[in-house]
Each structure stands twice: as C-alpha cells, then as structure tokens.
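Sample A.
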Amino acid sequence: MTITYLDLSPAQRASLDSLPFDGNHLVNSPPGSGKSLMAAQRALMLALTGTPTVLLTRSNLLRQTIAPVVSALGTQDHGGAGLGRPLLAGPVVRR
C-alpha cells in the first residue's frame, strides 16, 4: 500500500502546509491520529528540497512499523540519505 500526501486528512495536510521548512516543530495528538504518517511525509517533503533529512523514532518497534510507509513514499530505510531519500533511524542501544 502506498501512502501519499493526498491520503492524509485535510487537517493533516493543512498542518504540514502551515509549517515552515526551517526550525523544529512539535505535533501533539492522541494515539492513532497519524503523527507518524505526517512525520514520514514531512521527512520526504524536506528531502525533496535537498535538505539532509533524518527521521528519528523513539523505539525500534516504531521504526519497524513505519519503515514500510517510508519505503512506500519512495524513501530509504537505513540507506544513504540523499535527494528525496531521508534516512530512517531508530534509537541506538549501547551495550
């Protein structure tokens, strides 16, 4: 299944469209509201501008869950970040 910008709800699209491309931003919503999908779409939008982009996740489980979505958006999981290809990374575990 491919998720695109048009698959986001009107409210999600409006939120993404209103964010400037610079700076850090916080999205606060309840579970299941699509925050991870918005983050993946935002990472793609930034990468397409040529901005080096890394999408960090809080846990490896979340990274594994959204990896197919990021991949379907035309990005790369744990690959070389480049134009249109944000890097998706989970937490680093030190032993």
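Sample B.
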Amino acid sequence: MKLRHAVYTLTLLAIVATPSHAISTKYRAQLERSGCTQITELQGCDIHQTKMQNTNAERQQISAFLRDSVLNQPTDAAYEALNGYGFTNPAPLKWVKGKYAINLTINQKDVVTHATVTP
C-alpha cells in the first residue's frame, strides 16, 4: 500500500513539476520572425514569411481595398466601406487601423479622389 501511494505521489509530482508551455519554441521563433501573433495568424498573417513580406502583403491588401471600395466613391459609401474594413475615423478625412493611417482627398462633389496610406 505504501509503495502504491509512493508511486502515485511521484507520478503526480512529475506531472506537476513538468513545465507546460502554451506554444513550442519553434512556433514562437516563427511568430517572432514573421511579425505575426497568434491572433493575426488566424487573420491571415503568414508565419512562414518574414515580417517585411507580411507587411508588404498587408499593405497591398489595403491598397487593393482602397482601389476597389473607396476611390471614386461618394464619401458616404467610402466611409461605410472603411468602417466595415475595421478603420476608425479620429479626424475629418483621416482613418486609422492598427499601424496604418489613411488620409483622403475629396472633390467638390464629395467623391474620394485620392487616398494616402502611411504606416
């Protein structure tokens, strides 16, 4: 009985004393190299690319979105598209999402004619 209790106690101690890591060392290194987080990986950040490659891909996605949904659109439609894409509007004609800021230029007919992206 004492032997069984001792084995049980040692097994329990071995389990408790074993360090538990949420992610592996290799995965952590991939996240650091890629500039991704576990959350952004789920949103499309590629852990197999470098931080620069991911930044360029993200910027290209934003540029394509602006070209397709914001430029040459009435301001109401452009603002709705930007809001739907996750941007916030802290100042007139300025939209922000994460590290990206977009400054819009509109003409006299309230149509977006130009959008500048700055990281």
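B remarks: The longest helix spans residues 51-69. Residues 35 and 51 are 5 Å apart (CA to CA).
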